[in-house]
């Protein structure tokens, strides 16, 4: 290990040279502090509008401020909203209903706000849980977790010898995550294949912003037992 001794002036100069700092951090092993995230160069993702993320087994919880935004958008009072869309509620200890967390109902195995066209009926006001997917902390913990969330469309035949899989309500998965895979031809040549749909390279800054947003939401949620069973980010 190389130890760098810097004067105050040199340290200040380095701090103002962010590209150089990132180059230094790039050589630090992932297991050590100050290393760059494994997704430093961005990740390939584009929503395919398949609607499957809205059909995964599990719950969607709304923070109090999200409840307020959605009820205003739908022009409903809290009682009407609770009756029509909510299956569970967590009240604060002081009983203030304006600070409740609310869990959305499901309709025929999907989020109650998923339309027949596989589009969200409240898309511009969708919860942070939905807004930040698939850039959740649990899916960005390492490259393997991200790769495991990738699925191929149902009409694509899966190679029995490969690691690809189809979406299921139990395991979930995202068709919009593009993972390059390497396969050998009969002649022994390596061929790299990617998903057929077009994908966008999402930059690190956007990934990190959404991950932190999801993490803040996760930390605010008041019931640890639920976070470990039916709800995770």
Notes on the protein architecture:
The strands form four sheets. The protein has a three-stranded antiparallel sheet with strand order 2-4-3. Strands 1-9 form a two-stranded antiparallel ribbon. A two-stranded antiparallel ribbon has the order 5-6. Helix content is 29%, strand content 12%. The radius of gyration is 22 Å and the shape is globular. The protein has eight helices and nine strands. By secondary structure, it is of the alpha+beta class. The chain has helices at 8-15, 18-26, 64-74, 78-85, 128-131, 143-149, 204-220, 224-227, and strands at 43-45, 61-62, 86-90, 101-104, 106-107, 110-111, 181-184, 190-193, 200-202. Residues 1-11, 182-186 and 190-196 have low confidence and may be disordered.
Task: Explain briefly what this protein structure is.
With 233 residues, this protein is an alpha+beta fold. The protein has helices at residues 8-15, 18-26, 64-74, 78-85, 128-131, 143-149, 204-220, 224-227; strands at residues 43-45, 61-62, 86-90, 101-104, 106-107, 110-111, 181-184, 190-193, 200-202.
What labels describe this entry?
single chain, 233 residues, alpha+beta, three-stranded antiparallel β-sheet, two-stranded antiparallel ribbon, 12% strand, globular, disordered N terminus
């Amino acid at each position: 290990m190389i130890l760098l001794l810097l004067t105050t002036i040199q340290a200040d100069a380095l701090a103002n040279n962010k590209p150089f700092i990132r180059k230094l951090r790039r050589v630090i092993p992932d297991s050590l502090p100050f290393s760059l995230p494994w997704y430093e160069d961005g990740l390939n993702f584009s929503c395919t509008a398949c609607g499957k993320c809205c059909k995964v087994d599990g719950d969607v919880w709304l923070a109090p401020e999200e409840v307020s935004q959605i009820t205003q958008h739908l022009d409903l009072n809290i009682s009407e909203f609770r009756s029509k869309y909510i299956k569970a509620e967590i009240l604060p200890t002081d009983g203030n209903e304006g600070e409740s967390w609310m869990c959305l109902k499901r309709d025929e195995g999907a989020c109650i706000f998923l339309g027949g066209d596989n589009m969200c009926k409240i898309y511009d006001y969708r919860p942070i849980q939905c807004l930040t997917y698939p850039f959740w902390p649990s899916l960005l913990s390492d490259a393997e977790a991200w790769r495991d969330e990738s699925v191929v469309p149902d009409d694509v035949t899966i190679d029995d010898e490969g690691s690809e899989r189809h979406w299921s309500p139990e395991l979930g998965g995202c068709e919009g995550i593009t993972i390059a895979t390497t396969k050998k031809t009969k002649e022994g040549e390596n061929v790299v294949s990617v998903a057929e749909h077009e994908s966008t390279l999402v930059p690190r800054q956007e990934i990190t912003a959404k991950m932190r947003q999801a993490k803040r939401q996760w930390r605010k949620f008041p019931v640890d037992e639920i976070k470990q069973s039916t709800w995770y980010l």
